[in-house]
Amino acid sequence: TTLFRSVFMKIGIKSGTFFLLHYGHLWCLEQCKKQCDYLIVLLNDDDYVKQKKGVVPISTEHRMKLIKALSPVNEVGSFHGPNEHDWILKFKQERMYKEFEDKPKLIVFHSEEVKSNIFTPGLGVADEIIYIPRISGSTSEIIKNIRQYRKRIGE
To answer: For the whole model, what pTM was predicted?
Structure first.
């Protein structure tokens, strides 16, 4: 059964850890949604977050619920490992043409720093790769500010 009908519907996929949800994440997702009709957000699973960040302050399940509540987001999923390429490939092969009619277009969104990577997830699978700039207020900056505050108050 086809769920969505639209000529040349643009389906967007954006992935990330969304380790500590903040305004920069919302801004990024809003920029993605301006360029697609249906936005899927993919989250790294807890195992990968723990490996990359050293701690999992918010579980995959809770991060998924938080992201799903954001207005630009239509669907949320998760994946295991360092990149989402296999998830994107499986989505295109198994779901895209069944759920979205009339030659849907697949767009994968990445942060600008991914341009320098040797391998770009979605390349060769997506119809288009769009790079979204970062704005100030990253997770790293927020953690740094919290550490400075804790130091200042003597914790």
So the answer is: 0.86
β-strands 10-16, 38-44: how paired? parallel
pLDDT in tens, 22-80: 999 999 999 999 999 999 999 999 999 899 888 898 999 999 999 999 999 999 999 99
Alpha-carbon distance of 99 to 101, in angstroms, equals 7
Tell me, rounded to whole angstroms, the distance of Cα 5 from its chain centroid: 24
Sheet of strand 128-132, all strands in order from the earlier edge strand to the far edge: 75-79, 38-44, 10-16, 105-111, 128-132
Give per-residue burial for 15-43: e unless 16+ CB within 10 Å, then b.
bbbbbbbeebbebbbebbbeebbbbbbbb
DSSP for 49-104, written as a single string = HHHHHS--SS-HHHHHHHHHTSTT-SEEEEE-SS--HHHHHHHIIIIIHHHB-SS-
Cα separation of 18 and 25, whole Å? Answer: 7
Q: What is the DSSP letter of 127?
A: S
